[in-house]
């Protein structure tokens, strides 16, 4: 069942159970007593970080660190990983409990992005931790796309920067961010951050303060650029 994906990746798994694990959501693992993707996701997050920064630094040696950091912020975001995952049609492979599937969570952006991260860790481990092979596969699939997006100015700024530009222009004011709550055990914290500007308020949640702020800023950008809001002003 993974043949098509392996062909797209240009990689054949020695241990297909690793590939299956990369697609196994915790809800399914609990039901069936199998392994899930969380630790692979954790590792894959760092692998992708490394590969993206490596592409940025080698392709754009003339750009300043601050510019690279802004590009990176988008290129390692859930939205972008989701986009790359769609090219490989990963959502079709996700294993979730029936309840989660019925709730439509197979199409959840952040789960698809998690699975994308887990996939790269699975390849890394399966290949005997061969960094060069992983870089080569990733580069062959996505390097050109990333480079072209940057050259064509299609990489979005991070949402806090984007929001600040909008509010400065509209009201000559900056939005404010406030941590509302931090919940969960230390290895699995969930931060809630509110973003306010004028009478408007959005709330973002994430695994870090930074991630929650980005989420809140993203929602505020969407709110401020939505047609109904524009029309009511
Ligand atoms: Mn993730």
What can you see in these coordinates?
- The N and C termini lie far apart (52 Å).
- This protein has two domains: 3-151, Ribonuclease III domain (Ribonuclease iii, N-terminal Endonuclease Domain, Chain A, Orthogonal Bundle); 159-232, Double Stranded RNA Binding Domain, CATH 3.30.160.
- The model has no long low-confidence stretch (mean pLDDT 92).
- By secondary structure, it is mostly helical.
- Helix content is 62%, strand content 10%.
- It is globular.
- Strands 1-2-3 form a three-stranded antiparallel sheet.
- The protein has helices spanning 3-9, 16-22, 26-32, 38-59, 65-75, 78-87, 98-102, 109-126, 131-151, 159-171, 209-225, 227-232; strands spanning 176-183, 190-197, 200-206.
- Helix 2 runs antiparallel to helix 8 (109-126), helix 4 (38-59) packs antiparallel against helix 5 (65-75) and helix 10 crosses helix 11 (209-225).
- A hairpin with a 6-residue loop joins strand 1 and strand 2 (190-197).
- The protein contains twelve helices and three strands; from the N terminus they run ααααααααααβββαα.
- Manganese (II) ion is lined by residues 41, 45, 113-114, 117.
- The site of manganese (II) ion has 5 residues, from helix 4 and helix 8.
């Amino acid at each position: 069942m993974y043949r098509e994906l392996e062909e797209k990746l240009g990689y054949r798994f020695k241990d297909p159970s690793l590939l299956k694990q990369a697609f196994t959501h915790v809800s399914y693992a609990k039901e069936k007593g199998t392994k899930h993707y969380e630790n692979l996701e954790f590792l894959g997050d760092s692998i992708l970080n490394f590969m993206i920064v490596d592409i940025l630094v080698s392709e754009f040696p003339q750009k300043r660190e601050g510019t690279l950091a802004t590009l990176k912020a988008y290129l390692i975001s859930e939205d972008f990983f989701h986009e790359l995952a769609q090219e490989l049609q990963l959502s079709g492979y996700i294993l979730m409990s029936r309840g989660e599937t019925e709730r439509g969570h197979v199409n959840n952006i952040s789960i698809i992005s998690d699975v994308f991260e887990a996939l790269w860790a699975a390849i890394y481990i399966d290949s005997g931790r061969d960094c060069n092979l992983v870089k080569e596969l990733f580069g062959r699939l996505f390097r050109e796309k990333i480079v072209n997006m940057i050259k064509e100015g299609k990489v979005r700024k991070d949402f806090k920067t984007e929001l600040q530009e909008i509010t400065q222009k509209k009201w000559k004011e900056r939005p404010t961010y406030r941590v509302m709550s931090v919940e969960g055990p230390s290895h699995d914290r969930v931060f809630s951050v509110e973003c306010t500007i004028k009478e408007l308020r959005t709330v973002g949640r994430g695994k870090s303060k930074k991630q929650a702020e980005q989420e809140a800023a993203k929602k505020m950008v969407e709110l401020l650029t939505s047609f109904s809001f524009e029309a009511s002003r």
